């Protein structure tokens, strides 16, 4: 008894040598022939990949216009489009807003903010327990409330990120500028022409004619105090004792004094 061997490895069998019903050309074929050959896996994977959405391109002329336009006009346009463009509003909220719990605290008047290399230390000593769990200390907003991520430091006047505020980020002088009456610096100064010397303390051109009261260095010298950046939003609030607490403390004091007798 003879048998027929079918070669299924060929990419495109002719079909002439196939037995019925695989032979689509058979005279007695009553069932239409359907190929069971699968496409290469490479084609399947390429076809299944989602097409990447093209990102909107910002033209150079638009970028240049944004960079050069009036800042107040740009702000008003951004606010205007935030009312009608939800994706834009959501993106700006994600980039520009943070919750109170994410704000790194600043201990005002405390040595806990002074870097070890600061030339000038704070007048008040910081308590050690303020460092541990300092992020829970109260500030101007609650932990769940939102605030601006970027703000201006009241000491160095630089803009900083309230969530990335580290020691030594801010170099500043806690003192004030006073006139340094140096004959060499002010020799050619004419107050009738250039103005009163005392009024020029904020003019960088005359920085060499002033000294800082905190460190006796010239007005253009680097800050002598190294701390975090400080702003109203990240400064820890000093909670005053309530009237009831004060009254209780006053009542306890005589008892303590009598116990010593």
UniProtKB/TrEMBL annotation:
Residues 1-15, 25-36 have a biased composition (Polar residues). Residues 247-261 have a biased composition (Basic and acidic residues). Residues 1-36, 107-141, 240-261 are annotated as: Disordered. This is C2H2-type domain-containing protein. The lineage of its organism: Eukaryota, Fungi, Dikarya, Ascomycota, Pezizomycotina.
């Amino acid at each position: 008894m003879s048998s027929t061997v079918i070669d299924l490895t060929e990419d495109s069998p002719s079909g002439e040598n196939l037995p019925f019903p695989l032979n689509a050309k058979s005279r007695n074929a009553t069932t239409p022939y359907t190929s069971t050959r699968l496409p290469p896996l490479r084609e399947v994977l390429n076809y299944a990949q989602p097409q990447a959405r093209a990102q909107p391109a910002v033209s150079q002329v638009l970028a240049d216009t944004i960079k050069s336009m009036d800042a107040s006009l740009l702000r008003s346009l951004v606010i205007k489009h935030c009312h009608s463009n939800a994706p834009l509003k959501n993106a700006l909220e994600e980039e520009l807003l943070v919750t109170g719990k994410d704000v790194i605290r600043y201990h005002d008047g405390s040595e806990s903010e002074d870097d070890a290399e600061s030339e000038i230390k704070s007048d008040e000593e910081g308590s050690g327990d303020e460092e541990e769990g300092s992020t829970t200390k109260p500030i101007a907003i609650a932990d769940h409330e939102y605030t601006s991520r970027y703000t201006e430091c009241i000491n160095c006047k630089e803009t900083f990120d309230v969530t990335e505020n580290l020691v030594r980020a801010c170099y500043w002088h806690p003192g004030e500028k006073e006139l340094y009456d140096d004959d060499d610096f002010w020799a050619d100064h004419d107050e009738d022409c250039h103005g009163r010397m005392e009024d020029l303390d904020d003019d960088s051109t005359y920085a060499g004619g002033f000294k800082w009261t905190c460190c006796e260095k010239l007005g253009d010298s680097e800050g002598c105090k190294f701390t975090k950046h400080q702003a109203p939003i990240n400064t820890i609030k000093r909670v005053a004792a309530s009237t009831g607490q004060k009254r209780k403390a006053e009542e306890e004091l005589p008892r303590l004094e009598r116990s010593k007798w």
